[in-house]
Design goal:
By secondary structure, this protein is of the alpha+beta class. It folds into two domains: 4-125, Rieske Iron-sulfur Protein (3-layer Sandwich), CATH 2.102.10; 139-320, Naphthalene 1,2-dioxygenase Alpha Subunit, Chain A, domain 1 (Alpha-Beta Complex). Helices cover 14% and strands 33% of the residues. The chain has helices spanning 152-160, 165-168, 270-290, 309-320; strands at residues 14-19, 29-33, 36-42, 47-51, 65-67, 70-72, 79-80, 86-88, 105-106, 108-111, 114-118, 139-148, 187-188, 194-203, 214-224, 227-233, 239-251, 254-263. Strands 12-18-17-16-15-14-13 form a seven-stranded antiparallel beta sheet, covered by helices on one side. Strands 2-3-4-9 form a four-stranded antiparallel beta sheet, with no helix packed on it. A four-stranded antiparallel beta sheet has the order 5-6-7-8, with no helix packed on it. The two termini are 26 Å apart. 39% of the residues are buried. The protein binds FE2/S2 (inorganic) cluster and fe (ii) ion. The site of FE2/S2 (inorganic) cluster (FES) has 8 residues, from loops.
């Protein structure tokens, strides 16, 4: 865990690092968050996250194994308990390690089928918990992961950008004869995060269930520096379908991405819903990975037009939050 004065602004959020199903109970899993390698492992009762570095000689704990509810380092076999404390040194079986012999433990929890880490290390330093999203449809499918060679903020901005629909997603989310972006209003939520409560788009195939072209009403919300939500409204503005974008900023110019599809449709097979989202993101990906710089410019260097006001508001918000990871 970092000392308080060393905590970067982005570390005040809990951030997703892996799908729940990726973590086996009998072996650790190496992940990276904000440039920090972490070892996730399961002590038999709960999942844990440690800094992926053994305090003995710096080997990666994620290359080790789980033994009797403890994490064993691959190099000299030191074993660490759930709280990080070293419990056993095989070269000195009678030695009782002092309390200072410990791996660094991070707070970890589950939400939306993902493991989330308090990026500052401890919950007290990361007040922004994973979003609840309890008012969305209860059928939920996780899509991903995608390891993307660009910054997490580039991916978030793309998710908030509608002016590319008729080009990148031609015949799906947009059409070349409907490229005009209608007027829309950017409104900050109660936390000051920019969003668009009402956005109307013409979409030839706006979802896996769509039976042809239609005008669709959306709501865009920013959830954190690296996560966002798109809600498709149904009757009386009730959420009919929603897509959450979860990015894990692994490195300043790389990220891991998942989507959760929330839908009230109970007829379409899971495979059709996942294939739709997969198709859309595979259309986005080559353009995203072509953008330079890979870090999102928040203080100038790119041109804006009025259709970009949501992404411009996102950049201003990142700048106001003093976010540094993945931006330039
Ligand atoms: S480096 Fe981990 S036990 Fe030696
Ligand atoms: Fe897109």
């Amino acid at each position: 865990m970092q000392a308080n004065d060393a905590i970067a602004p982005e570390a005040h959020w809990w951030l997703p690092v892996a799908a729940v199903g990726e973590l086996a109970t009998d072996r650790p899993l190496g992940v990276t968050l904000l440039g920090q390698p972490l070892a996730l492992w399961h002590d038999g009762a709960e999942a844990r996250a440690f800094t992926d570095r053994c305090p003995h000689r710096g080997a990666r704990l994620s290359l080790g194994r789980v033994h009797d509810g403890q994490l064993e380092c691959p190099y000299h076999g030191w074993r660490f308990g759930a709280d990080g404390r070293c419990r056993h040194v095989p070269a000195l079986p009678d030695f009782v390690p002092p309390t200072g012999h410990r791996a660094v433990a991070w707070a970890l929890r589950e939400a939306h089928g993902l493991w989330w880490v308090a990026a500052a290390g401890a919950p007290a330093e990361a007040p922004h918990a994973p979003p609840l999203l309890s008012d969305l449809p209860s059928r939920r499918l996780l899509c991903g992961p995608y390891d993307v060679a660009t910054s997490a903020p580039r991916v978030v901005e793309n998710f908030l950008d509608t002016a590319h629909f008729g080009l990148v997603h031609e015949g799906w989310l947009g059409a070349r004869d409907h490229l005009q972006v209608p007027g829309y209003e950017v409104i900050a939520d109660a936390h000051g995060r920019p969003g668009v409560p009402d956005y109307r788009a013409w979409q030839p195939q706006g979802s896996a269930a769509a039976a042809g072209g239609a005008w669709v009403d959306y709501r865009y919300q920013l959830l954190s520096p690296y996560t966002a939500l798109l809600t498709k409204k149904g009757v009386g503005d009730a959420p009919q379908e929603a897509y959450a974008l979860w990015t894990c900023p692994t490195e300043p110019e790389a990220c891991r991405v998942w989507f959760t599809i929330f839908t009230s449709d109970d007829a379409l097979p899971d495979g059709d819903l996942l294939a739709f989202q997969d198709t859309i993101f595979r259309q986005d990906r080559p353009v995203l990975e072509s953008q330079r710089p890979r870090r999102l410019p928040v203080s100038g260097g790119e041109l804006h037009c009025a259709a970009d006001r949501l992404s411009a508001a996102y950049r201003r918000w990142l700048q106001g939050q003093r976010i540094t990871f993945g931006v330039c």
